[in-house]
Amino acid sequence: MPQDRATSPARLPPRLRPLPMVIFGSRWLQVPLYLGLIVAQGVYAFLFLKELWHLVIHAIDFTEQQIMLVVLGLIDVVMISNLLIMVIIGGYETFVSRLGLNGHPDQPEWLDHVNASILKVKLAMAIIGISSIHLLRTFIGAGNVGSPESTGYTVTGIILQTVIHSVFILSAIGIALVDRLSQPPADRAH
C-alpha cells in the first residue's frame, strides 16, 4: 500500500523544468566570488599582522598621534574584515545555499534572521563605521593643514571626505527607512 504524501518520511523537492533548473542553478556561479572574498580576507589578515608588527617594532620611536593613527588603521582593517565576513556568510546563506549551522555553538547570532534586506542595512552600517574610522584618521592626521608638518591633507579634501561620509549616513537612513516601510505591520513588532 503506497504511503500518503503527508506521512512519507522524507519528501523530495519537486523536480524543476529545464529552464527554471538552469536559472535556479545559476546561483552557484556566485561561489567563486565568495571564495575570492575569502582570499581577500586572507590578504587583510596578512596586512593586519604586518601593520601590527610595524607598530610593535617602532612603538618607541612613534609619537602618541602616530600610534593612534596606526591603531585606527588596524581597527579599519578589522572593520573591513568584518564587512567581508558579513558579505561572504550572509550572501552565501541568502543567495546560494543554507550553511546548515543550526545548533552550532559558533553560529553568528545575526545569521538566524538574515535576508537580503537585513544584509543591506548591516552592510550600510558597516560602511558607515569604516567611513567614520577613515574620517577620524583624516582629522587626526591633518593636524595643522598647510604647515610643513601636515600629512598632505587639504581643507578641500577634508570637506569632501566629510560630505561623502554624510552621504553614506543619509543613504543608510534611506535604506533602513525603505526597509521598514516595505515590511508588513505584523513583521515590525519583532
Report what the structure shows.
- The chain is mainly alpha-helical and 190 residues long.
- The chain folds into two domains: 16-113; 115-183.
- Helices cover 67% and strands 0% of the residues.
- The protein has six helices and no strands.
- It has helices at residues 18-25, 31-58, 64-96, 116-142, 155-182, 185-188.
- Helix 3 packs antiparallel against helix 4 (116-142).
- The radius of gyration is 23 Å and the shape is globular.
- The model has no long low-confidence stretch (mean pLDDT 83).
Précis, in short:
The protein has two domains: 16-113; 115-183.
Secondary structure layout:
Blueprint: H1 18-25, H2 31-58, H3 64-96, H4 116-142, H5 155-182, H6 185-188
Helix pairs in contact: 2-3, 3-4, 4-5
What keywords describe this structure?
190 residues, mainly alpha
Q: Which percent band covers the strand fraction?
A: under 5%
Oligomer: single chain
Q: Which consecutive residue ranges, at least 5 long each, have pLDDT under 50?
A: none
User: What's the mean pLDDT score?
Assistant: 83
Alpha-carbon Rg, integer: 23 Å
Query: Helix share of residues?
Result: 55-70%
Give the H and E element order: HHHHHH
Shape: globular
Give the total of beta strands: 0
Number of helices: 6
Structural class: mainly alpha
End-to-end distance, in Å? 46 Å
Number of separate structural domains: 2
Largest sheet: none
